[in-house]
Amino acid sequence: MIYTSGSTGRPKGVVVEHRSVVDYVRWAVETYPGVRGNALLHSPVSFDLTVTVLFAPLVSGGRVVVAELEESPAVEAVLAGAPLTFAKVTPSHIALLDALPGVFSPSGDLVVGGEQLTGEQLGRWRRAHPTAVVINEYGPTEATVGCVAYRLLPGVESRVGAVPVGRPSWNTRVYVLDAGLCPVPVGVAGELYVAGAGLARGYLNRAGLTAERFVADPFGVPGSRMYRTGDLVRWNADGEMEYLGRVDDQVKVRGFRIELGEIESVLAAHPGIAQVAVIVREDRPGDKRLVGYVVPEAGSVVDPGELRAYAAESVPEYMVPSAVLVLDALPLTPNGKLDRRALPAPEFTADSEGRAPRTPQEEILCQVFAEV
After folding, report:
1. How many Å apart are CA 266 and CA 300, to the nearest integer?
2. Domains of the chain
3. Quick check: helix, strand or coil at residue 147?
4. Distance between CA atoms of 218 and 125, rounded to whole angstroms?
């Protein structure tokens, strides 16, 4: 039994067969040589990120080092005596690794997964650890931890913006399909479906949800299934898969359809920003607004107004956040993913330049717009 992260609600129990775990762990041992050394276990054992760090070292002669990602002389002494060669984190953890002493970072493989990874997030860490290999691993719990991976080798410059998630692991089939379950061309966004040896049985005691997400595979042998991930992806010209966001991340604000990931990429490109999150808030019924949250680079001071002006240079006015809040750190769930529900509400001030309607016609017009 593996539980989903629960970042959008109550965690769901996913029933995974032993053979699926064995298939993934064997692939991880071959793909991540660092697991044969000292692997850092820092996440709750109830989440799928732990499967890689716990089982891959134990079946390959490696060692699991249990320690929390927090500065402590006792923990640092343990890690100094067992130099890390492998760690698996979420992108939200990278800023924490930047702030911690070097003993918390591996010299071999750093696997990043669970959220979209950008080159900007990796820049500082890679400069401090130039010999490490960074792997961007994609995989829902329903496909047994990981099923697609992209390797960023030492000396290879990180790309600006989103890092590709790469190519499927062995015994895995991935399809990028449109609404009619037809494959889309290279460069065209579609929903990702996953099939193969890693597919789970379904959700514990939730037959309806299992039937909705685990559907017949029209491209496989009769009786085979595939998992509908709800993720938007596309193939690039190099044959690598790029993650674009969630299907339900497409939001509508004031009649405009908006991709939150596009706004996050623009803000993340600012030289003084370390982490970014953009959400739609509706703190008052019917009043939907884009709100950005940023964590500045160490030693940097950012101005919310300047950030909004910076975003306005690259995106239309309706995609510019109504407010930008500067935080010391983004709130995380117990397994290291962004906790969007814990993001604070901004304080919107009234527009001092407005005025009341002066004529009956203006009053009617204001009433009409208020009802839209």
Report:
1. 18
2. 2-246 (3.40.50.12780), 250-371 (3.30.300.30)
3. coil
4. 43
Please compute the mean of the pLDDT values over residues 267-275 and round it to a whole number: 89
Please list the alpha-helical segments (H only) found in 100-203.
119-128
Q: Which value, in Å, is the radius of gyration of the alpha carbons in the chain? A: 22
Whether 87 and 64 have beta carbons less than 8 Å apart is answered as: no
Burial profile 348-360: b = 16 or more Cβ within 10 angstroms, e = fewer = eeeeeeeeeeeee
Beta bridge partners of 168: 148
pTM above 0.70, yes or no: yes
Phi/psi zone of residue 299: left (φ > 0), alpha (ψ -120 to 50 degrees), beta? left
Query: CA–CA separation, 84 vs 107, rounded Å?
Result: 6
Contacts of 302-305 spanning 24+ positions with Cβ under 8 A: 302/270, 302/272, 302/273, 302/326
**CA–CA gap between residue 112 and residue 221 (Å, rounded):** 33
The string of pLDDT tens digits covering residues 60-99 is 999 999 999 988 999 999 999 999 999 999 888 998 899 8
Per-residue pLDDT reduced to its tens digit, 126-183? 999 999 999 999 999 999 999 999 999 998 988 888 899 999 999 999 999 999 999 9
φ, ψ of residue 114 in degrees (nearest 5): 100, -25
